[in-house]
């Protein structure tokens, strides 16, 4: 999988959560999200308990609340969609602060916000305690098709290459006094986008030739064989099992 590759969501640490094998954390996060989605929307108290469980995980992982909340902003588009639902949904109406809102829309908005926020928070905790390279190794360990793992690996690494190339081109434009101020500068930006595409394509060809010359034949070598003990699996799955208990109570009560 190559050398280590840090990402902006990752927060370096030495907590028990950081030390867990990546495939155990991936399985636990996926199971937790499935349980949350399976919870009836009427059991509002259950979602509060899910938030408490994630808070305990964040505390054990030593991830500050500010760090987590800042990265939850990624779900803003979904929040905007949820806010519109009570206004556009059909069915029984109810007056709230002088506004006529749909009852089904209100429940739908709550469902999207609660489950979406918990799912995003769980994913952020996973990303903040697991490096990208470890995530790829975890997916490989969970028997995800090798081709998909390779595509994800190349996409992540090549995305940084393209971003760095864009930064160099922007610096080159600014060093020549260029500053995009209106529609009349779109032509220059379009030419820059075309040049970026050509450079990226050529860089991809050079990288592929370099890999072939080093023996690449369609499969990446496994450098680290990641394994997990029964105790580590038990520790990782404590979150989804606790959530499952809450989910069952939500359906029963």
Short characterization:
It holds the Pfam family CbiQ. The protein is mainly alpha-helical and 253 residues long.
Task: Give an overview in words.
By secondary structure, the chain is mostly helical. The chain contains eleven helices and two strands. It has helices at 16-19, 22-38, 44-61, 65-71, 76-88, 103-129, 132-141, 146-175, 186-213, 230-236, 238-252; strands spanning 93-96, 99-102. A two-stranded antiparallel sheet has the order 1-2. Helix 3 packs parallel to helix 6, helix 3 packs antiparallel against helix 11 and helix 8 (146-175) crosses helix 9.
* Helix vs. strand class: mainly alpha
Order of helices and strands: HHHHHEEHHHHHH
Number of strands: 2
**Could you report the average pLDDT, rounded to the nearest whole number?**
86
Strand content: under 5%
Shape: flat
- N- to C-terminal distance: 48 Å
The major sheet is characterized as: 2 strands, antiparallel
Number of helices: 11
Helix content class: 55-70%
Low-confidence stretches: none
- Rg, rounded, reads 23 Å
Strand order of the largest sheet: 1-2
Lay out the secondary structure.
Elements: H1 16-19, H2 22-38, H3 44-61, H4 65-71, H5 76-88, E1 93-96, E2 99-102, H6 103-129, H7 132-141, H8 146-175, H9 186-213, H10 230-236, H11 238-252
Antiparallel strand pairs: 1-2
Helix pairs in contact: 2-6, 2-7, 2-11, 3-6, 3-11, 5-6, 7-8, 8-9
């Amino acid at each position: 999988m190559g050398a280590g590759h840090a990402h902006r969501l990752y927060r370096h640490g030495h907590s028990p959560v950081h030390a867990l094998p990546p495939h155990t954390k991936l399985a636990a996060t996926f199971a937790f999200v499935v349980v949350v989605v399976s919870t009836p929307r009427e059991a509002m108290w259950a979602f509060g308990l899910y938030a408490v469980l994630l808070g305990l995980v964040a505390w054990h992982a030593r991830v500050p609340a500010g760090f987590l909340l800042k990265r939850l902003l990624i779900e803003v588009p979904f929040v905007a969609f949820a806010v519109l639902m009570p206004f556009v949904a059909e069915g029984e109406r109810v007056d709230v602060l002088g506004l006529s809102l749909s009852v089904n829309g209100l429940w739908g908005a709550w469902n999207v916000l609660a489950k979406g926020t918990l799912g995003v928070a769980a994913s952020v905790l996973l990303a903040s305690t697991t490096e990208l390279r470890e995530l790829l190794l975890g997916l490989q360990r969970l028997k995800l098709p090798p081709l998909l793992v390779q595509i994800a690996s190349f996409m992540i690494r090549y995305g940084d290459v393209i971003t760095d190339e864009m930064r160099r081109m922007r610096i080159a434009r600014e060093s020549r006094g260029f500053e995009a101020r209106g529609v009349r500068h779109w032509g220059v930006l379009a030419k820059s986008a075309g040049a970026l595409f050509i450079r990226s394509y050529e860089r991809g060809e050079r990288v592929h030739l370099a890999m072939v010359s080093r023996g690449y034949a369609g499969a990446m070598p496994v450098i680290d064989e990641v394994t997990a003990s029964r105790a580590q699996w038990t520790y990782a799955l404590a979150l989804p099992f606790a959530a499952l208990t809450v989910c069952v109570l939500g359906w029963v009560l």
